[in-house]
Amino acid sequence: MRFLYDVCAGKKELTLEGESYTHIFKSRRWQKEKNLILSNLADGNLYKYKITALSRNKARLELVDSVCELAGADSSSNARTHIIWAIVDSKVIEKTLPFLNELGVGKLSFFYADFSQKNIVLNEMRLRKILIHSCEQCGRNELLEIEFLPNLQAVLQKYQNIIALDFPAPALDCALKTMNARPSVLIGAEGGLSENERALLQSSNTTRAQIKHTYTLRSESACIFAASILGFATF
Q1: pLDDT category of residue 70 using cuts at 50, 70 and 90
Q2: 106-117 pLDDT per residue, tens
Q3: For residue 64, with 0-12 CB atoms within 10 Å meaning exposed, 13-18 middle and 19 or more buried, which class applies?
Q4: In the chain, how long is the greatest CA-to-CA distance?
Q5: Cα 132 from chain centre
Q6: Cα separation, 38 vs 8, whole angstroms
Q7: What are phi and psi of 105, to 5 degrees?
Q8: What's the CA angle centered on 112, arms 109 and 116, to 5 degrees?
Q9: CB neighbours of 46 closer than 8 A, spacing ≥ 6?
Q10: In the chain, beta strands by DSSP E
């Protein structure tokens, strides 16, 4: 654990109880003499607290110091990886989220594609909780942004600088070389994109590209691959 999330991190005094208390003092058997590092995952700071009082179900903390963890970091929209992902099985998405979080994806937009199962409803609070636990483990001090859009048409109305993964199409690494700014990468559900969706992409002049790979990638594997490539690309 690199730090503990608490929405109140930064206050001069605060109380740990409930799940946070159980995790720190019962699961991890934290000692009262050791300081705790907390983050609110909002302002880029890490806060050091000393434990001033400890009881059976709560702990009282007092702020000792703070560090601006993200000082000098480039958090502009052009520097952040943006994945636009067609909704697939919720369990698949939940298992993939920590990987995308660790790879530095800044924003993840979900939409219902023609091949998405329309009865799948993602639990935003559950996804946020998964991301918080991932941040605590990997040390990322900002939350990956999540949004929901109804369909591909809504995606294309909101975003223009997009590369859609599809085939046949030029290789992704070649397509990226033609871009002057970091693009959003659109990934379809299992089965790829429908002919209707391909027509929408063509009418909006959206760039299409494919991952040159020996095997067929699952939707979540394509997301991780794209996040890895974009994480090291410069524009």
Answers
A1: low
A2: 999 999 999 999
A3: exposed
A4: 64
A5: 10
A6: 9
A7: -60, 130
A8: 125
A9: 3, 37, 38, 39, 66, 67, 69, 141
A10: 4-5, 13-17, 36-39, 45-54, 58-68, 81-86, 105-111, 145-149, 162-165, 184-187, 207-209
